[in-house]
Design goal:
Elements lengths: L1 E6 L3 H4 L5 H8 L4 E6 L12 E3 L7 E3 L1 H14 L4 E11 L2 H7 L4 E6 L7 H7 L2 E4 L9 H12 L32 E2 L2 E2 L2 H4 L3 H19 L7
Parallel strand pairs: 1-2, 1-6, 5-6, 5-7
Antiparallel strand pairs: 3-4, 8-9
Helix pairs in contact: 3-5
The structure holds 6-chloroguanine.
6-chloroguanine binds next to β5.
């Protein structure tokens, strides 16, 4: 998989990919991440990428031309399965969207800033608009990093067997059950007996039950459909 991320502050995005699981995925050539600075695609000598809104109002709007130049150049080099715009008015990200995107080959992610992009960018290029939740970030970069993380960890080979994504919370619309490691007693708090029993069927049943109870208590909305 190849992900091209277009941004006015690509530096804001780089550190999540320099450590841990994401870095290993890149080193294993399971994914390639390419950063593009929109200012490199301006024609004006001021390197202008935003301008005032037609109709008035506070906040600058990202201009169509530099974004067109950047996306068109990328699309002339290879085919893209999706051109995603990260925006608070997009479809709210969930596990099902990440699962689908993890199966794609090449993806462009466009990070919005200021008030957002000229509507014609969305009309001309964007195939999917994604938000990471109902709150406002100062730009799409952190949202793009979140989206990349959720996708990349699903690519086969990125996680080891012991951390298989198949047992993640949300994969079956349930939260995870409580988990424990050594010691079996800590400050009078004991690990539930069943987990020490060695009886796998009982353990699995207990985990299913706990996952369901936790989901009922905390996120009943997940059980609705
Ligand atoms: Cl994708 N962008 C911005 N700016 N804010 C957000 C968001 C995206 N998702 C949630 N809040």
């Amino acid at each position: 998989m190849r992900i091209d991320i277009i941004s006015v502050v690509p530096d804001l995005l780089k550190s999540p990919f320099e450590a841990s699981i994401l870095r290993r995925a890149i080193e294993k050539n399971l994914v390639e991440i390419c950063f593009h600075n929109l200012r490199d695609y301006t024609t004006s000598s001021y390197k202008q990428i935003d301008d005032y809104q037609y109709g008035g109002g506070a906040g600058m709007v990202m201009m169509v031309e530099p974004i067109d130049k950047c996306i068109s150049k990328l699309q002339s080099e290879r085919n893209y399965d999706e051109v995603i715009y990260l925006t608070p008015d997009g479809e709210v990200l969930n596990q099902s969207i990440s699962n689908q995107l993890s199966l794609k080959g090449n993806i462009i992610m466009l990070c919005g800033h200021y008030k957002g992009v000229d509507q014609r960018v969305r009309d001309l290029f964007i195939t999917k608009e994604i938000s990471i939740g109902d709150y406002v970030l100062s730009g799409g970069e952190l949202a793009a990093a979140v989206l990349c993380d959720s996708i990349i960890r699903l690519i086969p080979g990125v996680l080891g067997n012991e951390t298989s994504a198949l047992t993640d919370a949300f994969q079956d619309n349930l939260l995870s059950p409580p988990i424990y490691t050594r010691p079996s007693t800590y400050k009078n708090l004991k690990v539930p007996e069943v987990l020490l029993s060695g009886h796998q069927k009982k353990i699995d049943d207990w985990r299913d039950e706990q996952a369901l109870q936790r989901t009922k208590d905390r996120r009943p909305d997940l059980l609705e459909d």
